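User: If you would, consider this record:
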Amino acid sequence: MSFPVSLDQRLEVRDASGATVGFILSDQQTRDLLADRDALRKRVAELQAQTARLTAERDGYLESLHFLARKELTPLTEQELAELQKDGLPFEQLLPEIEQIVGLKAAGE
């Protein structure tokens, strides 16, 4: 006696107790899964490269900030610090100012 098998579905193999032992996939399903895996590996590599670039950019900003803090900034008084905490600039506004200062310093040195 034979049973009809649909090749577009996976075949589940079970042992005598009913526990799943494995799956049998068609060639097309296997190729599709391998293509998905390869695409995901490529995307992971792209994201890792982007993370490395962003980390380097962040480190550059941090290095610039340390440079400016050593050379030109005077320590804040407690009153000035309290005012900054209350009325300080948002990061989105502060970053372009830092970039401009660093750019001017690099060009003028």
In short: The beta strands are 11-14, 20-24. Residues 6 and 88 are 67 Å apart (CA to CA). Residues 26-73 form one domain. The radius of gyration is 30 Å.
